[in-house]
Structure formats: C-alpha cells, structure tokens
Amino acid sequence: MAPSAGRSPSSASASDRSNEIDALRRLYERATSGPTYEPDEADLADVHLAGLALPLRASIAVFAVTALILVDQLRWLLPPSGDATTDVLGLRLIPLARFALFLVAPLGLVLFVFRDRPARYGLRLGDWRWGAALLLAGLAVMTPIILWLAGLASFRAFYGGASVPFGAALLNNLVELVPAEFLFRGFLMFALWRRIGPLALVVVQVPFVLTHLGKPDVELWSTFIGGSIFAWLDWRTGSIVWSALGHVYVLTLMTLAVGGATL
Fold it and tell me: Where are the domains of the chain?
C-alpha cells in the first residue's frame, strides 16, 4: 500500500513559523493603528497678521503654553518669600499652582476661547483596552530601569531628602502630573496635530524637555525617549489618561525607591 500523503515535518514547521509571523504582524498593526484626528473648520481657521496667515488655534496653544510655563518657572503663583513645601490639605503649593496653570487655564481656553470639547484634547478614556495593555507592557519594562536609576547618587540626591508618607507623595504627583500631561500632550499636541500632523509629536518634546532642566542629566536626556513614547501613547489612544498614569507611576516609584516616600 502506498504511504499516505501529508506534509513533511520541515514544511509543517515552516508553515507554523509563517503563521506565527503573520499573527505578530497583525498584532503589531492593531497596536500601532491610531486615529487620524481630522481637523474641523475651526481647526483650519487662520488669522491674518502683517501679511502672515497663522493657524489660529495652534498659534494660541503655542503662545499660551509658553506663557504658562514662564509663569510656573517665575513662581508667580507662589508666595514671594514663602515656603513652597507648605502643605494645604496635604498638597504642596507647587502642585497646586501647576494644577491651576497646566489644567484649569488651558481647559478654560478650550471651553471659552476655542469653544471646543475637552475630549478632542485627550480628556477622555479613549481606546482604553489598548491604553491599559500598552501601559502595563511599558511599565513592565520601565520598573527595573527606574529601580536601577534609583541607585545612582544623582537621583538619590534629587528625589531623596525628607521622607513623606506614600499617600501624600501619590496625591501630590497626581495633582501635578495629570495637568502636565494635559498641557503638553493634550492641549498643545492635539491642537497642533490637526494642523501639522505627526510633527506635533516632535514639537511638544521641546517644552517638555526644557521643563526638566535642573534634574539629573540622565533623566534630562531620557525625556526625549520617554516624552515621545507618552506622546505616541496619547495619539494611539486619543487620551492623556494612560500617559498620565504612567508618569505618576514612574515618579512615585522613583520617590519610594530613593527613600523620599515611605509606605
């Protein structure tokens, strides 16, 4: 009797590998397929000034973010001779000031100047399934890196100091970093994206990196990578929630690891 026809072990193995590669390619395509963020009529409106046609919303966003950063750096919302570490219901004055500058002020511009929906600037859950999955994958990679960096003298000196309870550290990080994510990768990035496309992801790294001046050199340079990843995550999901949670996790873990906060 003739042997039954069938695939050889080598051809079966090659077919399995091909199927695995196809599955990985499809997964990659799904993971990296984000919205297009089509502009509406107001996004495309220009203001004509001295012979220039400037994109109105995008220009307002750039100037507003620059001004808000200057007010923060000049500490205009802090007592001129007061202690910036003073607590108000467990919150330090700097996070409170940044909550007003980086969230309340740009949100007011969206609502009352742009007359637009905050959801168009990342204040929503967005694609939460991929947001949560991509965030958890990123944190799995980042956790050992943060713990390694916490052993460096420069990080221990900057993030150490007087220890505070974990709850207070977490609360202050939430109040400060969620607004920062909205300012840079919500308000500014999405206003720019609808006029200049993906270049917006690159442009928002400029103010983000410069606001890290004075921090350890390794962290300063790493913001090019971390900021770009967070901006990509916000583009992919249409939400600042996932980058904000990641930012809060990273800073809180670093504070705990260097002894700046205690459980």
Answer: 46-262
